[in-house]
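JOB MANIFEST
job_type = single_chain_structure
chain_count = 1
residues = 376
[input]
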Amino acid sequence: MNFFLSTDLCIGVNEALTVHEHLQALGVKKPGIIYDASLTGSLYFQDVLRNINAGYSNSVIYCNEFKGEPTYAHLENVAEFFRRESPDGLVAIGGGSTIDLGKGIALLMTNNVPALSLKGFPKEVNDPVPLVTVPSLLGSGAEVSYNAVFIDEAQGRKLGINSRKNFPKKSIIDPKLSMTAPMESVIASAMDSLVHCVDSFGSVKHTPISRIFSIEGFQRTFFALQQGQLDRAEARLDLAIGSICGVTALMNSGDGPTNGFAYYVGVKHKVPHGLAGAIFLKEVMRYNHAQGYDKYAMLNPMHTGGTAKEATAELLEQMDALYRQLAIPNLTPYGYGKGNKLELARNASISLSGSFAGNPVEFTEESANVVIDALT
């Protein structure tokens, strides 16, 4: 069994106001700051930025206005901006896309190569400059993971730069930074966390330790969503802990069909990754349950008796209610129906064989067709 954690976590209300102190503790003399354009109107973010500038009058600041998930070409352009300024540390403030961009830039600062040459799982790369992540959305887990997702536009595929050297040195998690995010983004990001928890829980590569994180992450996130009080800092802290648990479990096990479907549909239709995963999550769980997989009962803390099969069925009923509450769509708004569902199942099974292989029961093109049929 192998299990790893690598990022120093600092979690709390107003913690983002101390970013400059964390940079000083890391020995950074000239920080580069990259932040989401969506944060510009946040008064709290302006306080955070003001504090950083008070500690570092020489900081290099870049506003990321790129829409959607970053491409390798965009990474190359932003990395060149920072190379000209030569910061010795980076802070990435924003959602998963901006944080992933920060990971790629930190690595390219010390590896003067084309961004595309690092796609996949690069070997023999230099250590990046120190990276501090400050998430403004809670669910992707990008703030503590080593994976960084980028889109290869030529191939139309999500790939990434996946090196354990990408681990941020510190992650500063402050629920106040997420308070101005649109609620649909908050929900999509939280659903991404549920996908991580469920996929890692069922993964054929799970371990007893990874399952502890899967279960804790699922229950915290699910309960926070169920309560419908996401405007409270306490609920955002639960989403933050759920996000960390979910991606930690995923890194230490593997994904499954839901995460794979999310990558495929997300790129093809430019659907936010968390929402794309949410579309498929419940029906993948229901398919597995129909095939006799009842271990999802362990994710259901409210069940007090009966069999594992009954507890899993009860959890799926709660999932149905949550989907209605959150208005999670099916595939119809994205142009899928009975006429082209077989094509989607075929293409997904070809593209996602690795993700399908991680499912706890055999998952084939026909399995994909059953799931997609329930969503069209």
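[summary]
Strands lie at 8-11, 31-36, 60-64, 89-94, 131-135, 147-148, 151-152, 157-158, 161-162, 170-173.
Residues 46 and 52 are 10 Å apart (CA to CA).
exit_status = 0
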